[in-house]
Input
Amino acid sequence: MVNMQRTYLAFQHNCRLSTLRATVTASLFKQAKDDDHVVITDSTIFHPQGGGQPSDVGAMTIELGARFDVHMVRMSAVAQGEVLHFGRFADASSVFQPGETVTQSIDAEKRLLYSRYHTAGHSEGFDETKASHFPDSASCEFQGLIDSKWKDLIQQRVDEYIEKDMAKFRVVKIVGAETYPCGGTHVQSTRQCGKTMLKKISRAKGMSKVGYFLA
Output
């Protein structure tokens, strides 16, 4: 029986890291148009796509050696807790070997943008069922019907939360607002979300969908 090892999620312990040294546990070739390799490491700084949040992107490098560009990151559907890094080697003849040490580097600008959208999508006093924190389609869905007449009042409350600069914690506690577990990445306080603007409120089948964007 193969002993599958969980990947240590370094970003959950220190979300301010932008680089991390990790050990390669597997480097697999797959036939695909854009991302023809999967690299697995014992730990990762890359947040995998999930919870409505896009995955981090970036690179893994070996000093004076190969470079692997990470285009997307997913949790394994087979090995519980294992993180898969999909991408392509800069040199098609390159490959990582198990046991090699690589330096992982994320695109810090995109990480910050995704963290701002994720934090801005948390809400108080609503039964949230699912959300998308992708910049081009950010929205939250709630149980029950929210009339469009409340849009201005909701916007006012959002503005108040941003202005109060309320601190956030890993479990995600917004001081003075909401507390619940969340494994995504977040900014350190609500003000760091920046100007958060509500878009259309739509309703269907007993559900309400509130779109938003960061100005």
